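Please decode residue identities from the backbone states below.
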């Protein structure tokens, strides 16, 4: 071969150039003038030749280049040649070749990837490595879910490389399950990852030892914590009580000491000041610099009233606080102690802490490993046959529990059970279960399985019971997924006592019993035992010890009810109730069931699974003092509760149920039951004081550190929700926290934002007040409110005590979860309260109501928001009045949303809950509680004033309502005060109405006499006519020689002038009587000249601003009745709340002449009302009264 110079040309190329050049030939032909049509064949031939040469060149070049992963040329990615690829199809073709190579050349892909991994990891020859190392090295950022998926893929890859193909397929299946579970839980991996069996790459190791060592150490730490608690309690008992009762000194700072009582007193006052400041902020908001909020238009109290309010709050806080709490040294026990331990590990340096997460795990679990010797069991389990005690219909259900099993296609998800029995404890536990007759071995081939042949086996774990024993919990979730729920259990609650009222001469005492290991006492039917398999397969040694046949596998099956059976609570509750009912205990009229009306009588009793409580309201001859000096008299043999306690003991003995005698108590006035602490003399019920104090300390520590995790915050909300059930209006404090918890990461500690810290502070501020006072009374004023999107209205009436107590008993107790637009019954999950609604509707139609408000809202809004605003307006008004303190206000409302939200205490609607939170300070400071009854719109009397309509007459009260004290009173008595010639009295007497004697000095009766007030308070007066003297208020007195008596800028005048002082006194007396009868539910007319300076007085303006009061303007000359004969025009105003006065406003027709204004004696003589006016007033009253009687 010849050597060619760079850029040189070969002879073959020269030969090609010397060949025929068709392009040149075509150019020459065109230049010579040849027709293009003749040259067309040559052009086509040239295009065909060029295309053929191009394909040959590409094929030749491809034969000389290296083949890539796609099986083509390495340089094709950068080569632009090829007409076909050059037209946009090259990328598509390359992608297709890549997809084909996954199946055609898999080994090449694997080898190339592994070479890249080795190069990136820097692995030298002979060094061991796995793909897990490469995954850890990658930067996944915030895509934690993708990182978990990569870990799953790597596990499958490693199994395939180890030739474990079946295990790899199983791992793929579990990985798929975990992804589905993650989707079902909204992206939450914590539970889903457990299905993979892999170590979570995002969690850190919690303990250095093995799992068994961790269980042993955690049990030791808990036992040590409980021991320290006992030592503290014994030391406190030896020193004579709590530390806060001592007179010792407390070291505040170095060299500074303060007496212990002074510390508690300072802390209490600071707490109350903070609480009042919080209430002001919630009610008034944060005012702007130039806003009107610096001068809020709210009610103010005199110093004496403010002192009374403050003393009441101080007393409640003093009962709550102790010295350890005030100093921040109070420790927690139980589950709260675990939370305290976690919080103690959080170290934050305030502003210098920049980390996103605190390095402390937030798991709070009460599940403990099972230690056989600590498990509490009866000597012989299963001694009671439920079918012998249950009613026939329920006994039949228990005999055939297999009928409750659902078809397998309808089963819930069958999850893996939690079995925390160490292998070394398995035989000992099984031996103990068999010895105590709690379980028996059953052959595995007889046990139920699912369609895939998997056994439905439960697990066992323990929870702490006391210092020596643990409760054994049966995790029966695999079998529970295949069962229907019986729903027999209708349980009581300590919150039922928030419906109890104690009179001044009554106290409460209680007796209680607890059954020992009651769950393991009722036995299961023989054919149902196989459905309660638990734990691992019995070992060969234990099978031989139990005398089981060799070579046959057995598992233990419970033969008694287990704590964890889906129907365990229902069957256990039904058996306990049936045993007691056969001895006359738990009668229908005295049994407590949470969410239903409480018993009417003095005996209250209930059973909560294994706990019995019998309570009795007892009465003494005198008022019970509240200073701690009262000692309850001993019980008598003929007392109802004494007899029922005796019958309960006999019932337990007959049924073979063992009582925990050390837990029993008899006829105590202060006791704990169902999680509540009840003081029957003080009349208080709530969560135990020690628990509330510990919760306060936990909140204090969370707020102080500023950090928390999702698990701890959820636990705290659970504790607080349990505390707030004794004063449900406190639930509205949980404003932002639920949404914040849902946005928290499932693991790790995060810094809490300021608004969440403020919310936690508000919980702590209300813990001292989170109890129910059974000494409260039902307010005799029944109110009803209603609203439209633009207007609102309210009415009220006085009700007898018996009716008030019955409405309180029937009022909504638990409320329901409602949204702002959730007023449709189909959208409500709670059953409709039919009985209270029916009773309330009849009451709403049968009572004599008076309008207390009819107004227009500042702006249009959603009707449910306006309904709540109308109710809140009335409650704030009543809370501001001192006479309603310590009462429960019963209210009727036709909004299902309002009734549900207010009764529940909160709403998931941010706007509704915000309004409830704004109402809370008024309720606490005013000592007012609210009880609502849902009624139909047609029965709501407030519907009329909310639409500007007059109230309709009440319907005839039915017999049962009359028995509650409601009777129709048709005697409507009026009284004319400052009567003069008594024209009003005469006209009404002539119309047949009862009138009192006219009150005037002319008749020897003084308007300032106390008998008028007494008759109003006794309900003997229905309406008043008030016309105080107007001589000193007349505008004509400005013409007096001595100057005006009452200048325009000072309508009260100079009270050093006797005439002015007398006029002011009589006018104020008229206002006093108007307010008194208005508050008593009656009506009034206040008459004075139109130009009187009395209308400008501040006291008059306050009465005029009342919602139920309106003004009538009239001219008495329009009532003369004789054409051409007219006296003075005498323009007059009437201020009234009477519904029959709206047609009295006649004005001068202008067709006659008025004489000059009269003064002196002539003016006094002309002050008599025209007879036609008096007659028309009496006729209007007669028409209205006819509709009322």
């Amino acid at each position: 071969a010849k050597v060619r110079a760079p850029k040189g040309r070969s002879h073959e190329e020269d030969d090609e150039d010397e060949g025929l050049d068709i392009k040149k030939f075509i150019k020459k032909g065109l230049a010579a003038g040849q027709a293009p049509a003749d040259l067309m064949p040559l052009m086509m031939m040239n295009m065909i030749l060029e295309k053929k040469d191009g394909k040959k060149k590409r094929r030749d070049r491809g034969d000389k280049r290296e083949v890539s992963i796609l099986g083509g040329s390495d340089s094709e990615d950068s080569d632009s040649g090829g007409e076909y690829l050059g037209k946009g199809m090259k990328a598509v073709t390359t992608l297709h070749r890549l997809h084909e190579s996954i199946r055609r050349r898999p080994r090449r892909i694997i080898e190339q990837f592994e070479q890249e991994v080795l190069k990136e990891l820097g692995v030298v020859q002979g060094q061991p490595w796995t793909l897990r190392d490469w995954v850890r090295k990658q930067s996944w950022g915030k895509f934690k879910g993708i990182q978990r998926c990569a870990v799953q893929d790597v596990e499958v890859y490693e199994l395939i490389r180890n030739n474990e193909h079946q295990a790899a397929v199983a791992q793929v299946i579990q990985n798929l399950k975990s992804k589905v579970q993650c989707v079902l839980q909204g992206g939450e991996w914590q539970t889903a990852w457990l299905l993979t069996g892999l170590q979570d790459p995002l969690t850190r190791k919690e303990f250095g030892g093995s799992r068994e060592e961790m269980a042993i150490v955690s049990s030791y730490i808990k036992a040590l914590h409980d021991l320290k608690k006992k030592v503290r309690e014994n030391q406190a008992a030896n020193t004579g009580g709590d530390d806060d009762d001592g007179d010792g000194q407390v070291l505040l700072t170095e060299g500074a000491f303060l007496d212990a009582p002074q510390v508690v007193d300072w802390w209490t006052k600071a707490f109350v000041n903070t609480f009042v400041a919080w209430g002001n902020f919630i009610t008034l908001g944060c005012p702007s610099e130039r806003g009107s909020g610096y001068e809020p238009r709210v009610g103010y109290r005199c110093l004496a009233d403010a002192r009374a309010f403050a003393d009441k709050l101080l007393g409640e806080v003093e009962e709550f606080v102790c010295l350890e709490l005030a100093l921040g040294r109070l420790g927690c026990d139980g589950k709260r102690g675990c939370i305290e331990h976690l919080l103690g590990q959080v170290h934050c340096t305030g502003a210098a802490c920049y980390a996103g997460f605190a390095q402390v795990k937030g798991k709070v679990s009460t599940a403990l490993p099972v230690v056989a010797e600590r498990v509490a069991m009866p000597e012989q389990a299963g001694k009671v046959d439920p079918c012998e005690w249950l009613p026939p219909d329920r006994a039949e259900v228990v005999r055939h529990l297999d009928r409750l099993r659902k078809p397998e296609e309808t089963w819930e998800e069958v999850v893996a059970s939690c079995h925390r029995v160490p292998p070394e404890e398995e035989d000992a536990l099984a031996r103990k279960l068999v010895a105590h007759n709690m379980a028996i071995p059953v052959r595995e081939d007889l046990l139920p399985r699912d369609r895939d042949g998997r056994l439905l086996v439960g697990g066992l774990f323990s929870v702490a019971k006391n210092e020596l024993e643990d409760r054994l919990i049966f995790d029966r979730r695999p079998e529970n997924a295949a069962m229907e729920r019986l729903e027999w259990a209708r349980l009581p609650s300590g919150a039922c006592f928030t419906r109890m009222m104690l009179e001044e001469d009554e106290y409460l005492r209680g007796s209680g019993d607890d059954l020992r290991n009651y769950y393991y006492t009722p036995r299961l039917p023989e054919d149902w035992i196989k459905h309660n398999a638990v734990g691992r397969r019995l070992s060969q040694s234990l099978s031989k010890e139990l005398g089981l046949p060799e070579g046959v596998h057995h598992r233990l099956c419970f033969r008694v009810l287990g704590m964890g059976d889906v129907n365990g609570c229902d069957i256990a509750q039904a058996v306990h109730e049936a045993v007691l009912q056969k001895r006359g205990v738990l009668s229908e009229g005295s049994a407590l069931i949470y969410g239903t009306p409480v018993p009417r009588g003095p005996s209250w009793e209930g059973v909560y699974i294994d706990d019995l409580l019998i309570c009795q309201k007892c009465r003494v001859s005198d008022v019970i003092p509240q200073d701690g000096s009262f000692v309850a008299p001993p019980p008598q043999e003929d007392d109802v509760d004494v007899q029922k306690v005796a019958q309960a003991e006999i019932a337990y003995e007959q049924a073979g149920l063992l009582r925990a005698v050390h837990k029993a108590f008899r006829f105590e006035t202060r006791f704990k039951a169902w999680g509540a602490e009840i003081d029957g003399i003080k009349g208080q019920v709530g969560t135990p004081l020690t628990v509330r104090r510990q919760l306060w300390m936990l909140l204090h520590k969370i707020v102080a550190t500023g950090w928390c995790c999702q698990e701890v915050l959820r636990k705290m909300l659970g504790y607080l929700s349990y505390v707030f059930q004794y004063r449900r209006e406190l639930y509205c404090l949980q404003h932002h926290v639920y949404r914040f918890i849902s946005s928290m990461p499932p693991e790790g500690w995060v810094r809490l934002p300021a608004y969440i810290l403020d919310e936690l502070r508000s919980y702590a501020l209300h813990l001292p007040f989170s109890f129910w006072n059974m000494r409260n009374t039902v307010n005799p004023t029944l109110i009803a409110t209603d609203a439209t999107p633009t207007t609102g209205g309210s009415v009220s009436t006085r009700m007898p005590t018996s009716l008030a107590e019955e409405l309180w008993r029937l009022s909504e107790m638990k409320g329901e979860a409602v949204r702002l637009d959730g007023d449709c019954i189909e959208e409500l999950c709670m059953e409709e309260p039919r009985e209270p609604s029916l009773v309330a509707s009849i009451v709403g139609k049968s009572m004599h109501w008076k309008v207390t408000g009819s107004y227009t809202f500042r702006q249009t809004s959603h009707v449910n928001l306006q309904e709540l605003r109308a109710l809140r307006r009335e409650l704030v008004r009543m809370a501001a009045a001192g006479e309603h303190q310590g009462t429960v206000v019963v209210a009727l409302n036709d909004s299902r949303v309002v009734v549900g939200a207010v009764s529940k205490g909160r709403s998931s609607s941010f706007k509704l809950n915000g309004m409830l939170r704004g109402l809370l300070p008024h309720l606490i400071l005013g000592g007012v509680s609210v009880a609502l009854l849902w009624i139909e719109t047609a029965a709501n009397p407030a519907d009329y004033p909310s639409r500007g309509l007059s109230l309709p007459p009440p319907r005839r009260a039915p017999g049962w309502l009359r028995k509650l004290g409601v009777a129709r009173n048709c005697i409507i008595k009026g009284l004319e005060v400052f009567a003069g010639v008594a024209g009003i009295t005469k006209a009404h007497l002539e119309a047949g109405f009862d009138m009192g004697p006219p009150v005037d000095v002319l008749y020897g009766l003084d308007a300032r006499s106390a008998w008028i007030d007494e008759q109003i308070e006794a309900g003997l007066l229905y309406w008043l006519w008030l016309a105080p003297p107007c001589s000193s208020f007349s505008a004509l007195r400005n013409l007096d020689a001595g100057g005006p008596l009452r200048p325009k800028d000072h309508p009260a005048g100079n009270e050093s002038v006797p005439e002015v002082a007398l006029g002011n006194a009589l006018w104020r007396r008229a206002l006093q009587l108007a307010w008194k009868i208005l508050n008593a539910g009656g009506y009034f007319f206040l008459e004075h000249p139109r130009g009187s300076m009395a209308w400008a007085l501040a006291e008059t303006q306050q009465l005029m601003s009342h919602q139920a009061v309106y003004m009538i303007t009239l001219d008495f000359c329009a009532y003369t009745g004789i054409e051409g004969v007219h006296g003075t025009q005498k323009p007059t105003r009437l201020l009234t709340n009477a519904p029959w006065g709206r047609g009295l406003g006649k004005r001068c027709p202008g067709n006659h002449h008025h004489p000059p204004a009269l003064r002196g004696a002539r003016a006094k003589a002309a002050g008599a009302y025209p007879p036609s006016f008096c007659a028309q007033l009496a006729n209007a009253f007669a028409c209205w009264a006819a509709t009322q009687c």
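Observation: The first helix runs from residue 11 to 18.
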